[in-house]
Amino acid sequence: MAQKELSGGDRSPGPGAITVVGLGPGAEAEMTARARQALAEAEVIVGYRTYIDLIASLTAGREVVVNGMTGEVARCREAVARAVAGARVAVISSGDPGVYGMAGLILEILAENPRGAEVPVTIIPGVTAATSAAASLGAPLMHDFAVISLSDRLTPWEVIARRLELAAAADFVLVLYNPRSHGRPDHLRRARDIILRYRQPATPVGVVRNAGRVGEETWIRDLATLLELPVDMVSTVIIGNSQTRVLNGYLVTPRGYRL
User: pLDDT tens digits, the chain, 259 residues: what are they?
Assistant: First the structure.
């Protein structure tokens, strides 16, 4: 099915419905049966171009509406407009739509629409990067953990830094999303420097690039050597707590069972 840029599209009378679908990492084998069913039942599928391309085999027979990076608000407004006008719309997110995804934005936009309350919303969870990366590394999230995005596009760096400091001081295992990009090449170093105030340089660290996708790569290192790894926007960084260990090549945070 040919992809269309945001355009307004056709309109039909009466409210439709919105399903916000978590794709997981993007491979069909990693998607839930509910996610595949939602895509099969949708009349319109709306999403970021890269994620739409990941599910090309599942979009046949549906209208596909795409736009690019930073177009989240326009994308979700279009989806709401289609649903209010009567279409069954699936809005896709990579990972889980409620974890840095589109679920919250859809609900916010519906709340400001005079007919938004008429549109039923279903949110279908998916495997998020934290759990996908953790599975590739072993079992680093067996105890309390915090997920923090290093992207300051929507959150000021001062807020991110404060969250890093408090989570590191509380000895949470840390999962870092959006750790490094061309536009913010130094954020990972700044984050590591904050964490090193509370963790030993030998603290185990795992990095997974393209978690759950073709070309997945994994590394297990430590805080001292983290910056030597080719971390980028498709990488997830997991930093152990004071109890995390490397056991037979796997990253493990003990839950506390007596052995």
Answer: 445 555 444 444 457 999 999 999 878 888 999 999 999 999 999 999 999 998 999 998 889 999 888 899 999 999 999 999 999 999 999 999 999 999 999 999 999 999 999 999 999 999 999 999 999 999 999 999 999 999 999 999 999 999 999 999 999 999 999 999 888 889 999 999 999 999 999 999 999 999 998 899 999 999 999 999 999 999 999 999 999 999 999 999 999 999 9
The domain covering 3-124 belongs, at the CATH homologous superfamily level, to Tetrapyrrole methylase, N-terminal domain (3.40.1010.10)
CATH 3.40.1010.10 domain span(s) along the chain: 3-124
Topology of the domain comprising 129-252: 3.30.950
Euclidean distance between CA atoms 220 and 217, whole angstroms? 11
Partnered with residue 252 across adjacent β-strands are 139, 245
